[in-house]
Amino acid sequence: MFNYEFMQNAFFVAICISLLCPCIGIFMVLRRSSMIGDTMSHASLAGITLGLLLNTNPIMGAFIFTAICGALIEFLRKYFSHHLDLILTIILSLSIGTAITLISSGKLKANANVFFFGSILTVTTADMISIFLLTVLSIITLYVLYNQLLYIAYDEEAARVAGVKVDIINYVFAILMAAAVSISIKIVGVLVLSAMIALPVASALQLERGFKQTLLYSMGFSLLSMVIGLTGSYYLNVAPGGFVSLTSVGILLVVLVAKQMQHKLRQHTPNLHH
């Protein structure tokens, strides 16, 4: 399997996805805004189509358009502060409308369908460079803003009172979300991309550890689902996006069952001593 260059490229991208997506996802889950990931993934499709229309790198097109949509979500919060679902509907309408209009126009210089489900065959050297740069810059930014992001995630109003520049950091975080989404498109695909942002975090949260440990476990679960998903998609000859998503759900179910079994064992253990 690893004799093929396209599989080497795919696993390189998988490692980047496994590092970045949980880093973004854990803050989104804590802020109860994980559905933003789904909206951003659909927004990326419009960016891809724009990139293909302009004959530029679709990954960078997805990043730029998704970053704009992320910033627009933060801007609209001022007008619909208690209606996040309405904001997401507005962004979805803009993104899907743009994508469908461009795809149906027949003016795209390449086929956009491959981005719906992901493909291990389409990762180019240019994509790898773009993805690597976005990953490194995003992780550095997350490291620098770690304390402020954590503060905002737990209590945004208290963070404002404490002098944290919440609005600016929210805009920066929107750009980081765009980076996480755009690096994942080629492998995972638009339709199931949000699974890689939320499901590894959901699995890690069941372990009930501290924040940093939860983040590390999220990365571990993310990497595991990517490795199993890519390997399975190669041998079964199916789209990697769907199989990675199913693997992520499977890992979550295993964690939930293991947690339930551990809980029952603890309940019966005292009885054994009697």
From TrEMBL:
Leader sequence segment: none
UniProt family annotation: Belongs to the ABC-3 integral membrane protein family.
UniProt-recorded name of the protein: Metal ABC transporter permease
Membrane topology: Multi-pass membrane protein
Keywords: Membrane, Transmembrane, Transmembrane helix, Transport
Localization annotation: Cell membrane; Membrane
Family annotation (Pfam families): ABC-3
Organism of this sequence: Veillonella absiana
